[in-house]
Design goal:
Blueprint (H helix, E strand, L loop, with lengths): L1 H37 L25 H15 L8 E7 L4 E6 L4 E6 L5 E6 L1 H10 L5 H37 L1
Antiparallel strand pairs: 1-2, 2-3, 3-4
Helix pairs in contact: 1-3, 1-4
Length: 178
């Protein structure tokens, strides 16, 4: 009985090592990108700091289409070689009086005052492409779904087999002593 358990543990150790080695690259990429994402608000080169403006009721703000046109012009003037000025998202920050206009191409962002459309910042959001690396969506949405599920299941398997590899020898030694 003990001999069978030892043979099984050796086999389990081999599989534990293989899974760990296969996942090491992906886990390293995820860990490094996760660390960078944790610091994105503190490091301006990762994500431009949110500018502040006069706080005003939304009724005094310019229409979003006007703000979008100003943002496109600002990016076109700053990065003429980009060539693609399609807007991906507009984040309205009423508490700060700012609208962040994010573009689909090149991870660019333009920050505008909501009431005057004054351009406060034109900068690249490096945290966005790092996030795409972190979750696998830089390859494709299908890869993201598959890789995150495989990573999750394999990490759980490593936790379970690691615990078993730690606990079983203690149990076997206790049996031998009896």
């Amino acid at each position: 009985m003990i001999k069978q358990q030892v043979v099984w543990l050796r086999s389990l150790r081999k599989w534990h090592r293989r899974i760990g080695l296969a996942l090491a690259v992906f886990l390293s990429i995820s860990a490094v990108s996760g660390l960078l994402l944790g610091w994105k608000k503190q490091l301006a080169w990762l994500q431009p700091p949110t500018q502040k403006s006069e706080r005003a009721p939304l009724s005094q703000w310019l229409p979003l289409d006007s703000l979008a046109q100003v943002a496109v012009r600002a990016l076109r003037d700053s990065v003429p070689a980009l060539g693609d000025w399609r807007i991906a998202r507009m984040d309205v920050r009423p508490g700060k009086g700012i609208v962040k206009v994010r573009f689909e191409s090149g991870w660019w962002e333009v920050q505008l005052e909501g009431t005057t459309a004054k351009v406060r910042s034109v900068a690249r959001r490096h945290a966005d492409w790092i996030e795409h690396i972190h979750d696998g969506s830089i390859v494709s949405e299908g890869f993201k779904l598959l890789s995150m599920n495989v990573l999750g299941v394999c990490v759980l398997a490593l936790l379970a087999t690691g615990w078993w590899l730690w606990w079983s020898p203690r149990r076997i030694r206790a049996r031998k002593r009896r």
